Amino acid sequence: MTSTLRLQPRREYHIVVLGAGGVGKSCLTAQFVQNVWIESYDPTIEDSYRKLIDVDGRQCVLEILDTAGTEQFSEELYMKQGQGFLLVFSITSMSSLNELAELREQIIRIKDDENVPIVIVGNKSDLEEDRAVSRSRAFALSQQWGNSPYYETSARRRANVNEVFVDLCRQIIRKDIQSSQERNLDQAINGRLGAIDAQGRHNGRLRNHRKRPKVKGDCVIL
């Protein structure tokens, strides 16, 4: 029996994970993609991952770039390519939170878009006794950035790991749909204007080729 359901085509989205060194970017990404906890890692190595996920009935292939140890030039290149960004800090480090503002400004400047999909991630929520960033401080930043979603995660305990990537993917999908609708509207308007212009030229040619009525002169007999 042939299914009558129309399958949504897979879409590929590029996600970039940014943040200060040691906040757990690699651990967070590895937990999401491979479901593993990394006890030790090389902070100088960047890595990329691919994962297929289902978001609200849509199959999405996420190309995830972990920017650990990335040089400034490469970081800017990845910002150009990225469609969505996880900005990660550690709840045990206020300085790691403060670094996010500069990263966001850089993203907006490079993308020339103040509505870039962003999720703010406060990692290491399992280290509550070492907390240096209050939830109210993080939520204030979220509101300051136009209510960008904020999650507290624990890569070690896998708390809210899936949620941050799915939320970001939803934002990218919404933006993708909105951009597609705007393109279709522009094409429809341009097509309509083109048709009107073509019809006007056609009508002009008809007027130019319209036969003039013959005028019969009076016959005078001398």
From TrEMBL:
BP GO annotations? regulation of establishment of cell polarity; signal transduction
SMART domains to which the protein is assigned, alphabetical:
RAB (SM00175), RAN (SM00176), RAS (SM00173), RHO (SM00174)
Enzyme group, top EC level? hydrolase
User: Gene3D superfamilies given for it?
Assistant: P-loop containing nucleotide triphosphate hydrolases
Which family is annotated?
Belongs to the small GTPase superfamily. Ras family.
- Membrane protein topology class: Lipid-anchor
Protein's cellular compartments: Cell membrane
PROSITE patterns with a match to the protein in the record:
RAB, RAS, RHO
Record has Cell membrane as a keyword? yes
Which molecular-function annotations from GO does this UniProt entry contain?
G protein activity; GTP binding
InterPro entries per UniProt: P-loop_NTPase (IPR027417), Rsr1 (IPR041841), Small_GTP-bd (IPR005225), Small_GTPase (IPR001806), Small_GTPase_Ras-type (IPR020849)
> What's the protein called, per UniProt?
Ras-related protein RSR1
Record keyword Lipid metabolism present: no
EC code(s) of this entry: 3.6.5.2
Write out the GO cellular component annotations.
Answer: plasma membrane
Q: Which UniProt keywords apply?
A: Cell membrane, GTP-binding, Hydrolase, Lipoprotein, Membrane, Methylation, Nucleotide-binding, Prenylation
Catalytic activity, as annotated = GTP + H2O = GDP + phosphate + H(+)
